[in-house]
Amino acid sequence: MLARALLISALGLSLVGCPAGSDEPEIAAPSKPVVSRSTSAAVGAMAGAAPTVAATVDGKAPQLDACGALLDSNNRCGPVKELSAQIPGDVCLPEGVVEPNSASVEHLAWKTFVALNWPVTPQGVPASDGPLVADHAPGGHAVAWETWRSPPELLQLLRANEGMVSKADWSTPADLPEACNAKAGSLLLEQTATVSDAVAALLPEVTAHVNGGPAVDQNGRPVLVETRMNRTMWDVVVSGGWYEPGSSPRGLQFPNNHGDTAYGVGAMAVQAAWVILDAVEEGDASMRVRTAYVYQEGNEHRSAVCDEVLVGLVALQIGHKAAAGDDTWVWSVFEHSAVAPLDDNGPSREYMFQTTGCAELGGDVCADVVPGSATEAARCCPNTDLHGRLGPKDRLSDDRTPTHLTRLDAWTDSSSCTEHYRKALAGTPWSNFALIGAQWWENEEAETLQFGPRPRTLRSLVLEPWATRWVPEGQDTVSSCIGCHQAGDDGVFFLKPLRQAIAADAEAPSQPSEGAQAEPAEEPAPATPAEGSDQESASPSEPTSAPE
Question: Which of 76-90, 230-244, 338-352, 531-545 is the least confident region?
Fold first, then answer.
């Protein structure tokens, strides 16, 4: 069993490399870049102001194209010369290239990952030193995405301000529950699954494949999950009143990078998975570590619980509304290399979510295991929900039987992006992450044999552990970020439960004085849609996706 401390070293990965030979020419002047189908002035303006740091390149630098990829190599990643805090607005395509391919989308994913994990000042300004010297102590600088807002924070601000929230409240910290005894704005974690209880109750037919109990690490601790939205998404939701009861978010359209005239990057959301740690060795930079407050509301069985803990980041799922792929969401999934093996060679060491000593069990034993049946016979069943959703008496701090997670999609680094970015990020927690995959919707005008989501499936082991099925040949994955979130409000699921919570607040009886009667709550007026939004109901066949 893993010691309950952060003792994680970088794992050596079997990567398909694209090494630069010694005969490669010096770097040539790049050609004029083309961003998707048109150049975004906002992106270009912001890119010039974003801090960058040089990355070490072994040997003679190869010739790169305008997107930073190797020339004449199907846009594969070359050795990374520079790391930038600028979030790219879209897939970068060199001149003469019309449509994205998997390599160009993976290149976008890594550039985005670096920018989102760039340390920022308390004012949200990217630090000039960059990720190579980021302070990874529990009380150190936040990184960019950690300053974004969460749906629970939006709900708390709405409740605190009688339903009045503006764009300016982006910078207003949300108060934490009294039980936490912590300053406003601290990291609060309440959820143990990619789908919240509220979403699971409202959309059971949509979330059936991903709904369930927590993934549990080898220390018996559940994964903790949070969702955050960037400022572009916040501005649209708040200014359009899409959270208000009576609004009709099926007409909601989040902007891509071209429509995002304020920030030039398009709507984005992330979903992060954290594990609870007991200690952190001084100087250990193998994982992104934060101090967090794990909160559970009180109920008829117990009082509210709020525990201060250390947590380490193990997965980051990014949804990005971009012009590439016919104006839909681009998804990328990153995981820490200590989560589980990336290939089929089996564990050569202990991993966080793979039980050592487990014999391979098939569908004849595991297919009918009921969630919540954490029996000794079922503990080695791969990708099987042993615990089910937490009950009213359960506490997050309770020890649980570890879950045994395995990858079902073959993993390769055919673009070489993971190899080269890991080298450029050496010495930081981010060098221990791998891009599990990037999914986008292929443009219907593309002249290829495949149309629709590419790749067909994409799954984070710790965020969608139960999105699998047993077939005669064994276990298969049914996880598709795009396929699932087509049912959302332009790809997001958090608006419907948010509206329900606000409606419940409005209908709740006030506390009248003795002998007085509470006035009935008025029916809320429909919200005014955001400027530029499509008033027509979105077609259910439209491909959209974004984190919950």
Answer: 531-545
| Lookup: tokens for 508 | 């709740």
pLDDT per residue as tens digits for the range 342-368: 876 555 568 999 877 787 788 788 888
CA distances to 15, 21, 130, 334 from 424, rounded to whole Å, are: 15, 18, 12, 16
Identify the residue with better confidence: 302 or 315.
315
470, burial (CB in 10 Å: exposed 0-12, middle 13-18, buried 19+):
middle
Q: What is the pTM of this model?
A: 0.82
What is the CA 116 to chain-centroid distance, rounded? Answer: 11
Phi, psi of 484 (to 5 degrees): -70, -45
User: Please, what is the average pLDDT of the chain?
Assistant: 76
274 CB-near residues (< 8 Å, 6+ apart): 189, 223, 224, 225, 226, 290, 292, 311, 312, 313, 314
Amino acid at 458: L
Cβ pair 227, 190 in contact under 8 A: no
The structure tokens listed for 307 are: 């525990």
Given CA atoms 465, 471, 472, 476 in this order, what sign does their dihedral have?
Answer: negative
Compute how many other C-beta atoms are within 10 angstroms of the C-beta atom of residue 346.
10
Alpha-carbon distance 121 to 143, whole Å? 9
Q: Rg of the chain over CA atoms, in angstroms?
A: 23
Give the contacts of 175 (CB within 8 A, at least 6 positions apart): 156, 160, 184
- Tell me the C-alpha distance between 173 and 151, whole Å: 13
Q: Beta 82-84 vs 52-54: how paired, if at all?
A: antiparallel
Name the residue type at position 214. Answer: P
In degrees and rounded to multiples of 5, residue 470 shows phi and psi of -95, 130
CB 280 within 8 A of CB 6: yes
Q: CA-to-CA distance for 91 and 111, rounded, in angstroms?
A: 10
Mean pLDDT of 160-178: 91
Number of helical H runs and strand E runs in the chain: 11, 14
Residue type, 390: L
Dist CA 215 CA 400 (whole Å): 10
Mean pLDDT of 23-31: 26
Q: ∠131-136-141 over CA atoms, to 5°?
A: 75
Per residue in 217-273, pLDDT (tens digit) is 999 999 999 999 999 999 999 999 998 888 877 778 999 999 999 999 999 999 999
**CA 459/CA 452 separation, integer angstroms:** 17
